[in-house]
Amino acid sequence: MNKMTPKQMFFTKGMGYHRNKLQSFELALRDAGIEICNLVTVSSIFPPNCKIISREKGEKQLSPGQITFVVMARECTNEPNRLVASAIGLAHPKDKIQYGYISEHHAFGETMKKASDFAEDLAATMLASTLGIELDPDVAWDERKQLYVADKNRQFISRSICQSARGHKDGLWTTVLAAAVMLLD
Questions:
Q1: Average pLDDT over residues 7-15
Q2: pLDDT tens digit string along 103-132?
Q3: Is 136 part of a structural domain of the chain?
Q4: How many domains are there within the chain?
Q5: Residue pair 135/125 in contact by the 8 Å Cβ criterion
Q6: Residue 91, CB half-sphere, CA atoms under 13 Å: how many?
Q7: What gap in Å lies between CA 27 and CA 36, rounded to an integer?
Q8: Global pTM value
Q9: Are 78 and 184 contacting, i.e. CB atoms less than 8 angstroms apart?
Q10: Per-residue b or e along 71-80, where b marks 16 or more CB atoms closer than 10 Å to that residue's CB
Q11: Is residue 50 part of a domain?
Q12: Which of these, 7, 152, 181, 9, lies nearest to 94 by C-alpha position?
């Protein structure tokens, strides 16, 4: 691996309310603990041998102004009571030397569970397609083992993080975000 390949990653989520749209996003970043970074959004590959760490451990490695790579889902509304959700899904082979796939999902009107499940299914389906495998998430999900079985030789582990909220009752901007934060060191 080269120096630009993330070695660690953590998941985080946040929510913010404000009369200004940008400030509601800033408050969601604060809630997620990543407001001090210069965020660069990247596409969706989970690097081989990348270790998933806790949010707490990840935040300790951040410093003000740091360029930080993220896969981020974000949604906002200023409509009172409108349900918004943002989710990040991850699917990776049980064999950690292979890469995985991260998906982002933004939705209106979906519960946290529905958005979370969709993000996981999406990540698993996209990973399977990059490997030339046809995957029906409803058939491939093994509830007992809590993983996707693509074929007898390939099993995918998955997880997700989601933030949902109802639009503020007074019409303030409501922003929700979920992110996979990648660390190079």
A1: 97
A2: 999 999 999 999 999 999 899 888 888 877
A3: yes
A4: 1
A5: yes
A6: 30
A7: 12
A8: 0.90
A9: no
A10: bbbbbbbbee
A11: yes
A12: 152
pLDDT of 1 > 50? The answer is no
Mean pLDDT of 167-184: 97
Burial string for 131-142 (b: 16+ CB within 10 Å, else e) reads: beeebebeebbe
Question: Does residue 1 lie in a domain region?
Answer: no
Segments forming the whole domain that contains residue 33: 8-183
| Residues linked to residue 135 through DSSP beta bridges, in sequence order | none
In a domain, 106, yes or no: yes
Q: What is the pLDDT of residues 139-148, one digit of tens each?
A: 666 655 555 6
Residue 172 to residue 185: CA distance in whole angstroms: 38
Q: What phi, psi does 4 have (nearest 5°)?
A: -90, 5
Neighbouring C-alpha atoms within 13 Å toward the C-beta of 113: 0
Mean pLDDT of the chain: 91
Give the domain CATH number at 151. 3.50.20.10
The pLDDT of residue 94: 85
